[in-house]
Amino acid sequence: MGAESVAATAFLSHSLVSVGLDNRFFIKELMEEQVDGVLRVKENAIIFRASHLGWAHYGEVAVAVGYARSFGRHVAVGVRFHYLMEHAQEYRSTHSFTFDVSLYAKIARNLGLGFSVYNPARLKYGVVGRTPLPTRFRLDIVYRIGKHALLFGRVKKELKTPFEIDIGAAYQVKCLFLEAGFTFPRPEFGLRVGVTYRGFFFHLEEKYLLYAGFWQSIGIRYLFK
Questions:
Q1: One digit per residue, pLDDT tens: the chain, 225 residues?
Q2: Pairing assessment for the beta strands 176-184 and 75-88 based on DSSP bridges
Q3: pTM of the prediction?
Q4: d(CA 152, CA 33)
């Protein structure tokens, strides 16, 4: 459940579908299954995502569909609708609906800027519940250095919580992918290593969170183009 700039998908060069599995802390109850897709048609992009985090007795199902459109070569806008279902054994499931809106701009040849808002209407858990879903604002900036490296920055703000700032870099050469990032003011450092092979992407991620210690994630995805 996030607010990344869906509008940026309007600048993808081709359609794609990916399926994947991610596991956190190497615990079976924290397994996430995902299916993502983007259909590109001229200036338009149709986005689909479905995921389940948890296991049979509890977890969250998330389904999202969206649309993005570019205007010229430099600006795109997008909207995405979310269905969320939280389930736990012996408890009634909670069904929620919300949406996010986003804007992406190519400021220069190697520089992109994205802005998005998740749940701007302050919709609530369970549709008619009393507790609102989180409203999140996110600003992304990406600067590409040649064909293999990029620098990124991210500012995130959820209502009634402090700002969070992420900075990092990513590098890819042939089949090897490396990414490192740092978050503040609540310190968090992450390192991700990935390998691609015939459409498969294997990755291992290690994070250190000041308030929770070390956090591990391992995953595999397959990309259909």
A1: 445 789 999 999 889 999 998 887 778 888 899 999 999 999 999 999 999 999 888 899 999 999 999 999 999 999 999 999 999 888 888 999 999 999 999 999 899 999 999 999 999 998 888 899 999 999 999 999 988 999 999 999 999 899 999 999 999 998 999 999 999 988 899 999 999 998 899 999 988 887 778 888 899 989 887
A2: unpaired
A3: 0.89
A4: 26
Neighbours of 88 (CB within 10 A): 13
The domain locations on the chain are 6-224
CA angle 156, 15, 219 (to 5 degrees): 55
> Which pair of structure tokens corresponds to residue 199?
């459409």
Which pair of structure tokens corresponds to residue 27? 């615990």
Residue with tokens 């389930």: 87
Select from 67, 60, 68, 138 the least CA-distant residue to 96: 60
| Cβ count within 10 A of residue 57 | 10
How many other CB atoms are found less than 10 A from the CB of residue 157? 16
Burial of 187 (0-12, 13-18, 19+ CB in 10 A): exposed
CA distances from residue 184 to 92, 187, 189, 211 in whole angstroms, order as listed: 37, 5, 9, 12
Q: Are 218 and 25 in contact (CB under 8 A)?
A: no
Q: Which amino acid is at 92?
A: R
CA angle 26, 28, 31 (to 5 degrees): 85
Q: Domain 6-224's class?
A: mainly beta
